[in-house]
């Protein structure tokens, strides 16, 4: 009996060892590949040119392509086995892939995409969902999920994806890598399966901003030009108010990095919804078509509806015949989007096209040649695997509202990782005008190290979350006040500065700035009181002495005013305003 018991324990031990071995083997497989690749292959670059010619610009780099790019001799699978089964191998390689190989890079495989490259979840029930290296319990984002995972897991130096309505930007934000969506039409679409022709762009992922820029220069065929710094950084305040991510931390990182590199003068705050309401008149027509104008809806939410309608309309135009013929088995969420009733008239589609044209002009007008629009990449943290939140109308509306801005305007956008929060990646997005791809790549390259430094400081900060949030919120309110002051909206500026003071009452700048606004509306007593408070907090605040001197002069306190102007000169001997004011008052009372 004892012998049988011993044998049983031996067998049980062997069984457990076998299970442990298999588990380790499975984990090793996941670690090595992360489910990113659907096919391994190798496209080698040509030999290096003989000296003194320069080596190929992408020498030594490896890359992968999403399974929507043709490679000669291989079937392009489009994320679905029925598509692969019903299509022949490609007769030639997509030009965008060839130019990278000719540029010195080695292509090592094809990566998983969402079925028919339609979703933004990153999940694929046919080929398996790639594991998100940055948050294994969460989705990698789609549609170019495998391409983002391959970069995040250091399997390749860069990768190619397709971005229709977030297909590169969403997985970049979800996996914590850089993702670039170029201006619409800037990169050739030949040899690529279309999703929605007027929205599709070829995008790319990288972990290194210099690699991202090198790839961009090759794909965009950019000639040499001097790098330009941004002259305006526009924070889309309303976009940050509608999301469920750590907004204050993201804005703080961008603000501090920008101040360090370019100074305070480049900042501008914008309510993007209001701006689009005034600059995209066809949105009202679209809204009227859908609701008879009875319900008020934000312009950002309307854009979410427009982009989804256009994507569905153009996808069905491209692939409706194949779907009706083959009747592929589709995920319920994809099927609802693709196979459900279109519910759009020809007139509504024409209105959508007008909205695209007007939005293109509006964003270009806002940013001009050297402006950057700052928005959240994602409205929510990456979804949990198998979660249903991505199916909700609210989730989709907030997600596609942000994604629609670049997709519909055709402008270029880059997703920038900013560390992690609650064990999931955090990112921000920068948008530049259509055709501003070089400028955006260069600006990111200039800012990237500083952004990562500030993100690291923010994540390691020992300040309590609430205290940090109050400080950041005060800075945001102050910047809004500065913008209102520039726009000569004095009472609005006073309200914003007052908000900043409520949040952080020991900052001399807030009081001094509010005093400047009070002077403009003739509230001289309030201006004097604010300046006195500012001086008590900071004895070297030159602007506070100047503004108090002005307030006292207007109140008839001429002796005290002269003293303020003189003290400003002590602090800043070359200040012409203080010198002229003191001299004018001195002569007046000689």
UniProtKB/TrEMBL annotation:
Any single Gene Ontology cellular-component annotation: chloroplast outer membrane
Pfam families: Amidase, TPR_2
Keywords, in A-Z order: Repeat, TPR repeat
Domain Amidase span(s) in chain numbering: 55-219
Coiled-coil regions listed in the entry: none
NAD recorded as keyword: no
Listed SUPFAM superfamilies: Amidase signature (AS) enzymes, TPR-like
Keyword Repeat: yes
Protein name, per record: Amidase domain-containing protein
Organism: Prunus persica (Peach)
């Amino acid at each position: 009996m004892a012998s049988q018991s011993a044998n049983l324990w031996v067998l049980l031990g062997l069984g457990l060892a076998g299970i442990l071995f298999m588990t380790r083997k499975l984990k090793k497989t996941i670690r090595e590949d992360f489910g990113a690749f659907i096919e391994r292959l190798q496209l080698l670059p040509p030999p290096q040119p003989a000296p003194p010619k320069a080596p190929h610009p992408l020498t030594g780099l490896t890359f992968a392509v999403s399974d929507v790019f043709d490679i000669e001799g291989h079937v392009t699978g489009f994320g679905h086995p029925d598509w692969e089964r019903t299509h022949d191998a490609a007769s030639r390689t997509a030009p965008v892939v060839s130019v990278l190989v000719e540029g010195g890079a080695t292509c090592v495989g094809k990566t998983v995409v969402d079925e028919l490259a339609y979703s933004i979840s990153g999940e694929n029930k046919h080929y398996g969902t790639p594991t998100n290296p940055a948050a294994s319990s969460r989705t990698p984002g789609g549609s170019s999920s495998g391409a983002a995972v391959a970069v995040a897991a250091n399997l390749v130096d860069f990768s190619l994806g397709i971005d229709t309505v977030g297909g590169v930007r969403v997985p970049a934000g979800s996996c914590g890598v850089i993702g670039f969506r170029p201006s619409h039409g800037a990169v050739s679409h030949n040899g690529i399966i279309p999703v929605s022709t007027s929205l599709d762009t070829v995008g790319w992922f990288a972990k290194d901003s210099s690699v991202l820029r090198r790839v961009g220069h090759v794909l965009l065929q950019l000639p040499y030009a001097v790098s330009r710094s941004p002259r305006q950084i526009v924070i889309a305040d309303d976009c940050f108010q509608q999301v469920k991510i750590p907004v204050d931390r993201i804005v703080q990182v961008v603000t501090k990095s920008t101040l360090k590199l370019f100074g305070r003068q480049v900042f501008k705050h914008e309510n993007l919804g209001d701006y689009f309401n005034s600059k995209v008149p066809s949105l009202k027509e679209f809204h009227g078509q859908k609701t008879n104008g009875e319900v008020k809806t934000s312009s950002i939410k309307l854009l979410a509806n427009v982009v989804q309608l256009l994507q569905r309309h153009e996808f069905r135009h491209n692939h409706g015949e194949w779907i009706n013929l083959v009747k592929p088995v589709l995920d319920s969420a994809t099927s609802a989007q693709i196979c459900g009733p279109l519910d759009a008239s020809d007139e509504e589609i024409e209105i959508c096209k007008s909205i695209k044209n007007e939005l293109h002009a509006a964003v270009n007008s806002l940013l001009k040649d050297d402006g950057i629009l700052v928005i959240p990449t994602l409205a929510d943290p990456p979804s949990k695997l198998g979660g249903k939140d991505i199916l909700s109308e609210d989730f989709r509306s907030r997600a596609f509202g942000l994604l629609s801005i670049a997709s519909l305007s055709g402008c270029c956008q880059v997703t920038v990782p900013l560390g992690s929060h609650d064990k999931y990646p955090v990112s921000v997005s920068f948008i530049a005008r259509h055709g501003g791809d070089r400028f955006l790549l260069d600006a990111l390259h200039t800012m990237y190290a500083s952004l990562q430094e500030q993100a690291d400081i923010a994540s390691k900060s020992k300040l309590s979350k609430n205290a940090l949030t109050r400080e950041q919120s005060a800075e945001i309110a102050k910047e809004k006040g500065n913008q209102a002051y520039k726009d000569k909206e004095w009472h609005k500026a006073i309200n914003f500065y007052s908000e900043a003071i409520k949040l952080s009452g020991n900052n001399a700048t807030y009081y001094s700035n509010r005093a400047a606004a009070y002077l403009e509306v003739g509230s001289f007593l309030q201006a004097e009181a604010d300046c006195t408070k500012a001086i008590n907090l900071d004895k070297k605040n030159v602007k506070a002495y100047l503004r108090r001197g002005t307030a006292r002069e207007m109140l008839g306190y001429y002796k005290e005013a002269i003293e303020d102007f003189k003290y400003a000169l002590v602090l800043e001997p070359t200040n012409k305003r203080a010198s002229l004011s003191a001299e004018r008052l001195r002569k007046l009372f000689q």
